[in-house]
């Protein structure tokens, strides 16, 4: 960006345009197709077309990019904790293997449980709240403990406690939904 001071304005304009486009697209889709459309758009597409298969795989792969982005800081920190005697190439390979292993572990979990949305909410509730709220506040308080005011420390610790509570409640809620769905499935198959 040539002029970094315009970043905020560019971000606001970009998000406004994208939101407006999505809103118009949603209304046009609802007007064109009405109530006959399934809740998931991929279920309304003709199953034999290549475009449908591409859309289905894009739907499956999109959440994985979220996990790859969330796992990257963990893998980078692991790379920094490796001995200095290791070459940077070996460190990079280890980081890639750890990140790939974690991603494959999450994929295996998602494929082994039949209710993918509950798995995403189960793993996402705690991981997302940890990465977005708990870790930044905890690290800020830890790193800047002697330099920040007491009210800011209290705010950071309150946000850590509140984020932890939300993460636990979200995980419990997602777990209950997953268990209920599995019970319903077992009840219907019996």
TrEMBL record:
Stretches that traverse the bilayer: 12-34, 54-76, 97-116, 122-141, 153-172
Domain Amino acid transporter transmembrane intervals: 1-172
Subcellular location, record wording: Membrane
Membrane topology according to the record: Multi-pass membrane protein
CC terms in the record's Gene Ontology section: vacuolar membrane
UniProt KW keywords: Amino-acid transport, Membrane, Transmembrane, Transmembrane helix, Transport
GO molecular function, one term: L-amino acid transmembrane transporter activity
Source organism superkingdom: Eukaryota
Chief site of localization: membrane
Protein's name in the database: Amino acid transporter transmembrane domain-containing protein
